[in-house]
Design goal:
Blueprint (H helix, E strand, L loop, with lengths): L7 H8 L5 H13 L9 E6 L8 H8 L5 E6 L17 H11 L2 E3 L10 E5 L12 E5 L14 E2 L4 E3 L8 E2 L1 H5 L4 H13 L5 H4 L17 H4 L2
Length: 228
């Protein structure tokens, strides 16, 4: 789930659709009541934009500590050409961790799965060890640190285009294979061939790129189109 702050005015300004905080919190409670968060599977993403909602970092950490919800702080990304991204509005993940740690001590946790994009931090107990009951946070440093090398994700658009990167400038047509009633083996082979040729490393090259051009020189797909 996405929640960029507990202040209603701040959150409405961030989500661009005038959606209220109360409805998101109600959705989180409903998900927990339905058992969707059992085993730590419920996560809340907060995109952090310097000067807009970074004052909400600590209130969010306080609110979700001990609730069983894993909070993820995501550096404000250049998600296409529509959000007017600039580097000056990025708050590095290291500063997010430092702010929280000053009030709510943290300890580093290991990645839960190979290729995980978030760096995990657990709330510490009085002995300086992770308190599982208090929960954890995570930070996704997609701007200040490159994570392309361990990326294991692809995204499928609603029209059957496969994108190998959030910042890709083109997709690969899978719909035609399905419409031609290709066998499972043929589809598997096509996917393996596409992934085997993957060379996307936009976050590694970002420093030399403008905010609305992909590493290949073309315009990037909008993240809202393929999903974060």
């Amino acid at each position: 789930m996405s929640l960029d702050g507990l202040d209603d005015a701040v959150f409405r300004s961030m989500n661009d659709v005038d959606f209220p905080v109360a409805d998101v919190l109600a959705g989180i409670e409903a998900a927990q009541a339905a058992g969707l968060g059992d085993g730590g599977g419920l996560k809340v993403n907060m995109v952090v934009k310097r000067g807009t909602n970074d004052q909400e970092i600590l209130p969010m950490a306080r609110h979700f500590k001990g609730t069983g919800v894993a909070l993820r702080f995501i550096e404000y990304m250049d998600v296409g050409a529509t959000n007017g991204w600039c580097m000056g509005e990025v708050l590095p993940s290291a500063e997010v961790v430092a702010r929280i740690h000053q009030e709510l001590p943290l300890v580093a946790l290991q990645a839960a799965t190979p290729g995980e994009t978030a760096q995990r931090w657990g709330y510490a107990n009085a002995q300086g060890q992770h308190d599982p009951q208090a929960g954890e946070i995570g930070v996704i440093s997609s701007v200040t640190q490159a994570f392309c090398g361990e990326c294991n994700r692809a995204r499928l658009s609603t029209e059957g285009q496969l994108y190998l990167c959030l910042f890709a400038s083109k997709g690969y047509d899978l719909r035609s294979l399905l419409r031609q009633q290709a066998s499972d083996e043929d589809i598997t082979s096509a996917l393996a061939h596409i992934w085997g040729g993957r060379a996307d490393r936009y976050s590694e090259l970002r420093a030399s790129q403008g905010p609305d051009t992909a590493a290949t020189g073309g315009r990037r797909v909008e993240m809202s189109y393929i999903g974060g």
